[in-house]
Amino acid sequence: MTSGVSNNSKTVTTDEYFQSFCTEVLNRHYFIRSAAIADHLGHLMATACRPGLVQLLTNEESSRAAAQAAIRAATRNKFNSKIGQLQFSLSRYEKLVRATVPIKNGEKTKFLLLLTFDVEAEADSIILKRIVPCLAENKDYFLQ
């Protein structure tokens, strides 16, 4: 699918852009294991992993995890009027930390940025200081 966004006089497809974005996110901090973009239904659109990383989940399991993350993100809006919009959610497991960052257009979640971190990571700080600014720099592309 073509986005219509021109980059140095050539058209960049959405898939290519999402793939390069995932790679850019990986380069934001060495504790980031993987980055993926999913649509609001949880269908994976692009993924990138740290070079040499041994994956803990198969591709099929990663797809199911993305779908589950989308379902959880969609159900987290019940108390928005009282506590505000969800910025991101974190889950710490024994072997890694997972994060889901909604990419919204107003109230509506358009995409999800799915991240995994090494367990030593201060994921909250990395997301706030490295990932949120990266999303802000690219928001025009995501929200067109």
Report on the architecture of this protein.
The protein has a five-stranded antiparallel beta sheet, with helices on both faces. The chain has a two-stranded antiparallel sheet with strand order 1-2. The chain contains four helices and seven strands; from the N terminus they run ββαββααβββα. The protein is α+β, with helices and mostly antiparallel strands and 144 residues long. Residues 1-10 have low confidence and may be disordered. It has one domain: Beta-Lactamase, CATH 3.30.450. The longest helix has 20 residues, at 123-142.
Tell me the layout of helices and strands.
Blueprint (H helix, E strand, L loop, with lengths): L1 E6 L2 E4 H13 L5 E8 L4 E6 L9 H16 L5 H4 L5 E4 L4 E9 L2 E10 L5 H20 L2
Antiparallel strand pairs: 1-2, 3-4, 3-7, 5-6, 6-7
List keywords for this structure.
disordered N terminus, about 35% strand, about 35% helix, alpha+beta, five-stranded antiparallel sheet, globular, about 140 residues, Beta-Lactamase, 4 helices
Give me a quick take on this structure.
The chain is of the alpha+beta class and 144 residues long. Helices cover 37% and strands 33% of the residues.
Cα end-to-end separation: 14 Å
Secondary structure class reads: alpha+beta
Q: Count up the helices.
A: 4
Largest sheet: 5 strands, antiparallel
Identify low-pLDDT runs: 1-10
**Radius of gyration from CA coordinates:** 15 Å
User: Secondary-structure element sequence?
Assistant: EEHEEHHEEEH
> How much strand content do the residues show?
25-35%
Could you name the CATH class? Answer: Alpha Beta
- Going by CATH, the homologous superfamily would be Dynein light chain 2a, cytoplasmic
Shape: globular
Report the CATH topology name: Beta-Lactamase
- Spatial arrangement of strands, main beta sheet: 4-3-7-6-5
The CATH architecture name reads: 2-Layer Sandwich
Work out the count of structural domains: 1
Number of strands: 7
* Percent in helix: 25-40%
Mean pLDDT: 88
